[in-house]
Design brief:
single chain, 276 residues, alpha+beta, Thrombin, subunit H, six-stranded antiparallel β-barrel, six-stranded antiparallel barrel
């Protein structure tokens, strides 16, 4: 054991002598004192580490600054896109409004006796058999129950079934409980049109009680026959199919509605007209 420790001591002494010799040689070559070299040797890796940490901190700072700038730029772009989308929606709305006003002007020129009140749809309700919507005009604007609703180019939309001071409810032509006396314009065949809610005919109309001998062609236009509620020749739809009723006594026709009920934004209530 004593021999072991003495060996270790000799090794330590040899290393110390070598280090001291090395420092002495370095001191002679560089002109610096041994303590200076020792301090320099210790500080050099520390300085290198500090410089590395400084560079890394600077990179992190630049990244965070750039990240914040990118966030701000991204937010600005989002706001710009949102504004552009809003401008496009407004332009589309104005374009649709101009189209409706153009159609309405033509309708009034062709039917100078029509008294119309316009209204915008504010809510909708529909089931398998019923179809209604509510507009933002009512009795304060001259609207009453039993008045018909049309589009700006004379397509039948439905009938006012409820009216308040500033609203009214319109039952649409798609409602199975609404029946309208109608005529096939090209042939004069008459029947009753109502909502055609049945399997495969959702969103269509059905014209019943047509003569069994009636010749019915696709794309034939169907118009109102005229009554105290509906003026003559308002467009209801066009024929897309036909068949014989269950009794075999009368035919029926399936119609595509002229008015795009599901996508309507504005309607016109016919508050008065000259009956023929």
């Amino acid at each position: 054991m004593r021999h072991f420790f003495s060996t270790r001591v000799r090794v330590v002494l040899i290393l110390a002598l070598l280090i001291a010799g090395g420092l002495a040689v370095a001191s002679g070559l560089t002109g610096r004192s041994i303590p200076n070299l020792v301090v320099q040797g210790v500080l050099t890796p520390l300085r290198a580490g500090a410089n590395a940490l400084t560079d890394q901190a600077e990179q992190i700072y630049n990244y965070m600054f750039r990240y914040e700038a990118l966030l701000a730029e991204n937010q600005a772009l989002k706001e710009q896109i949102a504004q552009m989308q809003e401008d496009n929606r407004l332009a589309d709305s104005i374009s649709r409004e101009n189209d409706r006003l153009r159609d309405l002007l033509e309708l009034r020129q062709e039917n100078e006796d029509y008294e119309l009140v316009d209204g915008y749809i504010i809510s909708r309700s529909s089931t398998d058999w019923n179809s209604t919507f509510t507009i933002d005009k009512g009795t304060a604007s001259g609207i009453q129950e039993g008045m018909c609703a049309i589009t700006g180019n004379g397509e039948v939309v439905g009938l006012v079934t409820e009216a308040g001071s500033n609203y009214c409810v319109v039952k649409t032509v798609l409602d199975s409980s609404l029946e309208i006396s109608a005529t096939i314009a090209s042939t004069g065949y008459s029947g009753m049109v109502q909502g055609g809610y049945s399997t495969g005919n959702e969103g269509l109309l059905r014209m019943n009680y047509l003569p069994s001998s009636a010749i019915i062609r696709n794309n034939d236009q169907v118009v109102t026959a005229g009554s105290t509620v509906y003026p003559r020749n308002l467009v209801l739809g066009t024929v897309v199919d036909a068949g014989m009723g269950d009794t075999g006594v009368a035919k029926y026709a399936i119609l595509k509605p002229a008015a795009d009920i599901e996508n309507l934004e504005q309607v016109f209530i016919l508050t008065g007209y000259e009956q023929e």
